[in-house]
TrEMBL record:
One of its GO terms (molecular function) is phosphatidylinositol transfer activity. It comes from Opisthorchis viverrini. Pfam families: CRAL_TRIO (PF00650), CRAL_TRIO_N (PF03765). Residues 36-61 form the CRAL/TRIO N-terminal domain. This is CRAL/TRIO protein.
Length: 170
């Protein structure tokens, strides 16, 4: 990895190098996704500035985004039952990072969403958090309020209803 004199990664050089390596990669419905320095820096950071791992992750991400279209998601439950989700972005902290709040307290069994709808909402919240981030912001604050949680909520068959567990290559 390229570093500046103080040992920090030379982000401008790494972004330029990454851009050359992914020049063939297109995101037709999101032309600005790969043009954003902030996006490329987030991907580089997430792979500890490893160019090969970052490129691999970006290629998989673009393929997933083309197939799944997370940028076009609309959470129907948010429209029909505003404020009923137990996961939502509630604003920004003093460092201008998105603050996402999740609680079990109001997640009564009668209000729990089917697994696919819950996953759709999660992606919807995360996509909106990324869109709301100002330049230079690359972190979120995630508050998980476990009040009201019950061991019955952690049953394995419930988590498997979303789909098989996947791991990421590093």
């Amino acid at each position: 990895r390229r570093e500046t004199m103080n040992g920090a990664p030379d982000t401008a050089l790494l972004v330029e190098q990454l851009r050359k390596q992914i020049a063939d990669l297109k995101s037709p419905e999101e032309p600005n996704f790969l043009n954003s320095d902030e996006t490329l820096v987030r991907f580089l950071k997430s792979r500890d500035w490893d160019m090969e791992a970052t490129e691999k992750m970006l290629r998989k991400t673009i393929a997933w985004r083309i197939e799944f279209r997370p940028f076009a998601l609309d959470c129907n439950h948010c429209r029909t039952h505003p404020g009923s989700h137990t996961l939502r972005q509630i604003g920004f902290d003093q460092a201008n990072r998105p603050v996402i709040y999740a609680t079990f307290y109001s997640a009564f069994p009668s209000q729990r969403n089917p697994a696919v709808e819950a996953l759709t909402h999660l992606i919807y919240v995360f996509e909106n958090a990324v869109r709301s981030m100002q330049p230079g912001v690359s972190q979120w604050v995630f508050v998980l309020d476990c009040a009201g949680a019950d061991v019955r909520d952690a049953q394995r068959h419930k988590s498997l209803s979303i789909g098989p567990r996947e791991t990421t290559d590093q």
